[in-house]
TrEMBL record:
GO terms for molecular function: DNA binding; DNA-binding transcription factor activity; protein dimerization activity; transition metal ion binding. InterPro entries: DtxR_MntR_Metal-Reg, Fe_dep_repressor_sf, HTH_DTXR, Iron_dep_repressor, WH-like_DNA-bd_sf, WH_DNA-bd_sf. This is HTH dtxR-type domain-containing protein. Residues 1-64 form the HTH dtxR-type domain. It comes from Ruminococcus flavefaciens 007c.
Length: 156
């Protein structure tokens, strides 16, 4: 079984390719991630078994609803980034640490932390922080190909 971080990176890569080409092929993923063909083959097999992707005609890879949901999940990383910036962590460190936190924190811990900040510091999602959204999103859009629907009205 692949780790959470690797799974999310593969699914985001497949989504990016799928959005431009209609479907992904193993060789496309190899090119995007810079890994070997056998590595991609193993990952594709594992992701298909987990229900994140479907392989059509043995080489066209498309995300399932479950796969799209995980590939578009960026709410966690934005929350971690906002939380760290709110706590005074510098932009570059906050960005790097938010990525690490998003991949390693379990659901129960994440929910507890989110509930704590939303109940005790709701200003975390409405604080004025000049350039934070642009700084983070501009550098991360190719990795975090997610819709902004939930965050369009949040002032960062």
């Amino acid at each position: 079984m692949l780790g959470k971080e690797k799974t999310e990176n593969y699914l985001r890569t497949i989504l990016k390719i799928q959005e431009t080409c209609g479907s992904a092929r193993g060789i496309d993923i190899v090119g995007e991630l810079g890994v070997s063909k056998p590595t991609v083959s193993i990952a594709v097999h594992e992701h298909e078994k987990e229900g994140y992707i479907e392989c059509i005609n043995n080489y066209n890879i498309i995300l399932t609803g479950k796969g799209i949901g995980l590939a578009k999940k960026k709410e966690d990383i934005i929350f971690f980034l906002l939380m760290l910036r709110y706590l005074g962590v510098g932009e570059e460190n906050a960005k790097n640490d938010a990525c690490k936190m998003e991949h390693s924190m379990g659901d129960e811990s994440y929910k507890a932390l989110l509930d704590f900040f939303l109940n005790n510091h709701p200003e975390i999602v409405s604080q004025e922080n000049s350039g934070l959204k642009e700084f983070f999103l501009a550098d991360s859009l190719s990795i975090l190909t997610a819709s902004r629907d939930k965050y369009d009205n949040i002032r960062i």
